[in-house]
Model the fold of this input.
Amino acid sequence: MATDYSDLKKNLPEWVKMSRMFASKGRVADYIPHLAYAPADALGITLLPLNGDKLTAGDCDTSFTLQSISKVFTLILALMDNGEARVFEKVGMEPTGDDFNSMLKLELVEPGKPFNPLINAGAIVISSLIHGQSIAEKSARILAFIRELAGDTSLTWNEEVRRSEAQTANRNRSMAYFLKDNRILDDEVENTLEVYFRHCAIEVHCSHVARMALILANDGVDPQIGRSIIPRRYVQIAKSFMVTCGMYNASGEFAIQVGIPAKSGVSGGILALVPGKLGIGVVGPSLNDKGNSIAGVHLLRLLSERYDWSIF
Ligand code: GLN
Done:
């Protein structure tokens, strides 16, 4: 039976307008220099209901790069390629309470294994686990997977953002060398980083992200064709990580205030989902001090409170 989203449709533009005001309290990321060109006061959202028509409001035409959102999907692909046992030999299952690019715990906790696959150190190791003989083959497999989930065969990475990160990623580079030294990373550092930069730079719109989220909300089944793209168990693992680590070290606060699985990226994108109901894509490049879209989080909080979305 179709769910009635008419109230949501009516109110969405107003809520986007209210939430957009918070953008001025945040900052666009510039540690990857090319990201600084993003429109600071933009806010857009696409909601894709499982039973119902697409809803959009605000600056949905603003394109952005997946950045850390891509880590959810490289994790899933690594699980599909290697199975759980192998993946969790290399990365842990726990939140860190540290920044996404922190290397603090790599040295503090034996044997230097990243705490989870959504922090940079973990995601870099995950990139190395993607099957393929070369950088090109691994990157092509990741891109094909994301294209399938996003429902757009024309998606690709933004070459300027990729280059901008590759030229400035001293911190990720040092982490990768550290992981290599600890024999957590088996592949060559530069090859692994190149795969990582490429998937972080895949360029999308909110509607792509909403579709990727909808497939997770639907236990891995593409609702359009009724075919399973991701095994349900791996969706379960991905959603668990999204709840515990998806919003960096603001994941606890987000769980209390919004209460749905979500993953953000430093480009200001957020992928979120209401299990069994909705896939959501948000863009709002101005970030709060934890690195999450400040207006985007505000908007999701309003929506969750109003429609009682919390899974808890
Ligand atoms: N490519 C970014 C980085 O490694 C991704 C980080 C993010 O979105 N949090 O710094």
The chain has a mean pLDDT of 95. Residues 5 and 179 are 48 Å apart (CA to CA). The domain at 68-200 is CATH 1.10.1500.10 (Probable Glutaminase Ybgj; Chain: A, domain 2).
